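Why do we care about 3D structure at all? Because function follows from shape, and shape follows, mostly, from sequence. That is the central idea of this module. The next example makes it concrete: a single protein chain, its amino acid sequence, and then its structure expressed as tokens.
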Amino acid sequence: MIDQVPVVTVAFLCVAALFAGWIDSVVGGGGLIQLPAALIGLPSAPVATVSGTNKVAAAAGTAMACGNYLRKVRISWPTTLATLVTAVAGASVGAHLIQFVPRSVFSPVIVVLVAAIGFYTWRRPQLGQQSRLKHAGAAHFWLAAAMGVAVGFWDGAIGPGTGVFLVIGFVALLGYGFLEATAMSKVVNLSTNVAALIVLGTAGHILWGVGACMAVFNLIGGAVGSGMAMHFGNRFIRVVFLVAIVIVEVKLIYDTVHLYL
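And the structure:
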């Protein structure tokens, strides 16, 4: 038993964390696999505890992927930092609110957002294949900051899809290529994960043993995925992005239907 959780359940969560770490490091959205798995594996735990435990694993994998990207991918630090600062503020507020949010609001919101993002990307095959920056000057940074607040709040309050939302924001709103957008999103996402961890951890909403086991596997997935993304480039990331969106959307719809039946 780890944190009074059966070993079989911990093993299930670790396998989910491995795949989540891989997907998250390639294009983001690993939480769309990992958090639903945690909700299934920890049915009696409060939402805040499930979210906090999930954040331990997510932060580990994101840190690994972030380090790999920063060694080889050149990013725009001014844009990244403008997004990061406001995202951390948004994540802190969201993490406080998650303590009062029931499980029943999760699935319907995520289903709609994931479908919208997948459709948007599919309809634009050249999206993110190379950097063509939009909104020059101050407008570029104000848009990055606004995106940071919105995505950071989502990350702190709910979590799944944060990396996907950041990537699509950097690509569609600001004009970066998929590879650079993914690298920038890892920096921002790591910061929001840490902010949410601090809030949830100090409130006692983390199963540290389970989270640590999941973190090891998420970290391995993050190392492998980020290496493959840098090797194969933007087209590979786009394909993985769309495949992940379809798989996750089917799973979320199935879960939502059963939630309300």
